[in-house]
Amino acid sequence: MPTILITGGHSGIGLECSKQLIAKPRVTLLLAGRDLDRMEVAAQQLRAKGGEVKLLEMDVSSLTSVRTAAARCRTMLDSGEIEELQAVLCNAGAQFMGPVSYSPDGYEMTFATNCLGHFLLIELLIDKVAQKGRVVYTASGTHDPDTADGKVVGKAAEPDALVLIDVGKGGDKPLSTGVRYTTSKLCDILYVHEMDKRLRRANSSIVPIAFDPGSVAGTGLLRTHPKPVQVLAKTSLMKWVMRRMGITMSSVEFSGAALAKLAVDPAYATGSGKYFQAKDDRFTEQRSSIKSYDVAAALKLWTDSEALVHLRPDERSALLSAG
Ligand SMILES: NC(=O)c1ccc[n+]([C@@H]2O[C@H](COP(=O)([O-])OP(=O)(O)OC[C@H]3O[C@@H](n4cnc5c(N)ncnc54)[C@H](OP(=O)(O)O)[C@@H]3O)[C@@H](O)[C@H]2O)c1
After folding, report:
1. Which residues, 6+ apart, have CB-to-CB distance to 176 below 8 Å?
2. Cα–Cα distance, 220 to 222 (Å, whole number)
């Protein structure tokens, strides 16, 4: 059975995606995350639908944890416990309210969680992704400062990894929670564009894709926000207001199903380097922000990220080396 690895596949948009995928014939789901108890609850729910579900412990904000998880995944593949990776879905993500916090590696938490962890995971597993397999990043329409989504959450800053890891350390006013989030999602799209370029140069048929699920209420994304904000976000009044403001709206079911399509549907086999958006029950390819097509910024982000995750020569895949 081909395997689909999904981070954050036990909750929110990821869980809805997992439900869609497990209903397909011959799929093994590898749920990757840091909370094995919560993941097991979701796994039992998914197994009840008849599919095979395995767990992979991984805190995506910790480089050590990502390396351990990637090594475990390789062992599972080499031993035949799971079959080759049909898709890797980089879906875990978070917003961090309150004082700026840092990962075990000393990097600002939003950038560590939403960017560097998945960057390292893909570097370590890309050679185990099947030909014509997919790498999908759950980004966000909020990355685009020219849209209502981007303006409301906070206009994305420069996607400079060397600055973003140290946000809040210099004594200056740190970037807001919203700006750190939207900038991290801009970086995810830049990774997809740079990855597409590198894979094409290496004559690989692996397909990297960026995904905007739209604004989806009721997931765990706002969990660090004040309770009233979390409650308000789920009300129909708030949804009405957001729609009037021009925010890209979707439902958890629709966006989860859209992510599942990007993972396996032949219709997206030619989606390499592209950006797809879920909006009001429509799922279409869109242009991402102007900055997301800045090739120099993408290359710098990539090479800086390689240094920040301390990528060793023996970890470097030829598939992603052609910068
Ligand atoms: N909801 C929206 O409106 C919206 C809009 C645009 C984009 N997105 C993106 O969609 C993706 C899914 O979010 P969601 O809305 O479904 O929220 P969610 O329910 O909170 O899901 C986020 C997932 O990420 C996991 N995660 C967070 N930090 C992690 C870490 N350090 N290590 C491993 N896993 C970690 C969480 O696991 P735990 O259970 O361990 O916390 C959770 O499973 C995110 O990338 C988010 O940025 C969401």
Report:
1. 154
2. 6
| Distance of alpha carbon 89 from alpha carbon 122, whole angstroms | 10
pLDDT at 1: 64
Fold of the domain built from segment(s) 3-320: Rossmann fold (3.40.50)
Burial of 206 (0-12, 13-18, 19+ CB in 10 A): buried
The string of pLDDT tens digits covering residues 147-190 is: 999 999 999 999 999 999 999 998 878 999 999 999 999 999 99
Residues 6+ apart with CB under 8 A from 55: 30, 31, 32, 33, 36, 39, 40, 43
- Out of 67, 221, 250, 253, mutate this one to test ligand 1's pocket (max ligand atoms within 8 Å of CB): namely 221
Could you tell me the residue ranges of all domains in the chain?
3-320
Q: Which distant-in-sequence residues (6+ apart) come within 8 Å of 242 by Cβ?
A: 215, 249
- The reported pLDDT for the residue numbered 141 is 98
Does residue 56 line the site of ligand 1, with CB under 6 A? no
pLDDT digits (tens, 9 = 90+) for 81-124: 999 999 999 999 999 998 999 999 999 999 999 999 999 999 99
Residue 50 has pLDDT above 90, yes or no: no
Alpha helical stretches, state H, the chain: 12-22, 36-47, 63-78, 109-111, 117-125, 148-153, 161-164, 177-201, 227-233, 236-245, 252-264, 295-308
d(CA 61, CA 52): 27
* Beta pairing partners, 134: 87, 207
The answer, yes or no, to whether any atom of ligand 1 lies below 6 A from the CB of 186, is: no
Q: Which residue's alpha carbon is at the smallest distance from atom 26 of ligand 1? A: 92
- Ligand 1: distance of its center to the CA of 305 in Å? 21
